[in-house]
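beta-N-acetylhexosaminidase
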Amino acid sequence: MSARSASTRPSRRLLRPLVALVSLGLVAGAGQTAAVADGPGHSGDAPYRGKVISLMRHMSVEQKVGQLFVIEVAGRDANTVSDTAKATNQRLYGVDTPAQAIAKYQPGGVIYFTTRNNDDNIGDPAQVATLSNGLQSAALAQKAKIPLQIAVDQEGGALVARFGPPATQMPGNMALGAGRSEADATRSAQVIGTELAAVGLTQDYAPVADVNINPNNPVIGIRSIGSDPALVSKLAVAQINGYHAGGVSAVAKHFPGHGDTGTDSHYGLPQVTHTLEQFNAIDLPPFKAAIAAGVDTIMTAHVVFPAVDPSGAPATMSKKILTGVLREQLGFDGLIVTDALDMAGATATYPPNVAPVQALLAGADQLLIPPQMDTAYGAVLDAVKDGTISQQRLDESVYRVLMHKYKRGIFADPFVDVAAAPQIMGAPQHLADAQAITDRTTTLVKNDDSVLPLAAGPRKVLVAGWGVTTTQTMAAAFAKRGATTTVRESGTTPSAAAIDSAVAAAQASDLVVVSTNNAYAISAATGQPTAAAAAQTRLVKALLATGKPVVVTAMRNPYDVASFPEAPTVLDSYGYTSHQIEALVKVMYGEVNPTGKLPVSIPKADGSGELFPFGHGLGY
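Tokens:
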């Protein structure tokens, strides 16, 4: 396999701030190259500094601007795509294929998706590896011969994992937080990184370093390790080490912290109301730890943080935050990549010709998925030519992008072995490790009636509640252990008829297992439970009223128990991968001891205090 070797991974040493920056005298004419007298950086970048400076001397302004962008492309092959993918590429870029998009913009990177914008990049491992190689060939066919960063959001867990099976499904951040194990967090990231590297990925937009202290955070939740900055710091660093060991670079996100927001930045612009003291105590520690651990890249958040920047600028466009705090205060000299610029947190405030320029002026190096690529590219190019973005500022970011690619070994070895990819992705040892790690994450929150662990033997089990695949997979796990199962899946918002049907089925059952998904969610508009949360709560309470033994399994956020504190038996899984469902059933039968501890505290629904503290968790 032609994978990037461990020797090409960057040092864990924190890079010093750029010194001896020189005005590089960009030639004004379109297509002409920049004259580089010396260049940014410092001697500590050896042995690659000379190579980067030499390359930059021969790059045109247009090529340099291209390196600042990370774009999406549609299709499962670089050169041959479906009509749907062709239409997407035409709409986004005015070209037919991913290879043509690479030739047009010569971007610094590409990000893979599945269903977003009909991108449809991800199929079987051999296909993805072939696509990656094709994109790298397209990049190297250009005059500058600069390989691509190829990135993806593969955080692990059930929420943000672009690669489904056969890729190994690791348990996710909050589950790892419940497990408390640095070794497990490292191994989880190493498996993900190894599999991504096998199919040509060079970077994973993970780990999430946000400290989730808001139970009603609509966008982070179980994507966070937990509510304790020290725990988040410890396990984020463990994951960074694991990704690097697996052969991909890591990205800590979302700076300066997205863990205490009540708005999803995909759909609006959140505000973090922390004081400076809270900012330093809660939000910053994981990012400080990530920088000390040698993280390659930090991703920005589209959040307003008035205590840090009273201007109201989102962090992505805030020089006070990106340059003042991240660069100067924390001393980070790696890559700063924006969160997707087509998210409402960016577009609601800044037009498509303004957002990319403002992000660069704030201190960002890479612009992720601008909503109108031609507009964004042209705006940045014009800003360089008219001096809004100085020649020096442009070269600082281009230098970082190219240096990153050299240090990560992408220049030396941009291609992967297509034949080896299917053996690496979903390898038996990876799957076994995923199950073993996941088995150590389930939290037993309540066991008041000592229903658990279940004794062996036949029984009639009703599996009710949220999730078509979740309920069927759980029922199959019970059946494998000799139970006769009935499934009454009722969706996110159970109807009265669905609740009645589940109650009727419960009457003929020996045990009821009911799964919930965000049964504690509160509407930001009303301050009351959402319709879905209220309906799920009604389902749980109706099943409790049957008098049958009921086990409630919170499949996503662990806060659900606050909506039905009278439930005597409650388990938290922090996700619903097949491994997490198997771990739940193993815990119910006592095949493994529930060792997960709450990585967050659970508030009482009336706001009067804690229902369960951080660190709570029962065992057998």
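The longest helix spans residues 229-246.
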